[in-house]
Amino acid sequence: xxxxQAALNISLRLALCDNQGTKRYDxxxxxxxxxxxxxxYQQEWVDFNDSVxxxxxxxxxWNASRDDCLKKxxxxxxxxxxxxxxxxxxxxxxxLTDSETEGTWKWVDGTPLTTSxxxxxxxxxxxxxxxDCVEVKQHEKKNSWNDKPCDLPNFWICEKKVSx
Length: 164
What we know:
Number of helices: 4
Strand order of the largest sheet: 1-2-8-3
Structural class: alpha+beta
Order of helices and strands: HHEEHEHEEEEE
Distance between the termini: 28 Å
Low-confidence stretches: 1-25
Shape: globular
Strand content: 15-25%
Mean pLDDT: 81
Number of strands: 8
Number of domains: 2
Radius of gyration: 18 Å
């Protein structure tokens, strides 16, 4: 049903674009963006703002999860806004780690962490274990990040930017 709705939305947008012949260049850009997003809808990706997201249905380690995202042409999710953060309600890996330097948190694209949503008391190496990877915990509060050993299995979320 969701794929049918997406197809109807895309058909309507393309039809409207064709009827506005005055901005042909803009319409071609619009068509390309819509068609590329439709490709991901067919593969069970979810559209939100300028990205599409894939949410796993099985558990893997952080590194295996990242490998899966990379094979899909994406990467583990980078949380750029509170709007993105509040959408996440299940336990899953995101693209944040301090595996290079303990205590220096970086996103998978190499950018340093500036805004964070840590749970109370986090990050914290529980029982003196290396907890270098970050999961979003199933939590009702906005602050739901937990650092966790990277070799433990978890669900994950991939993000791919789809913009012009």
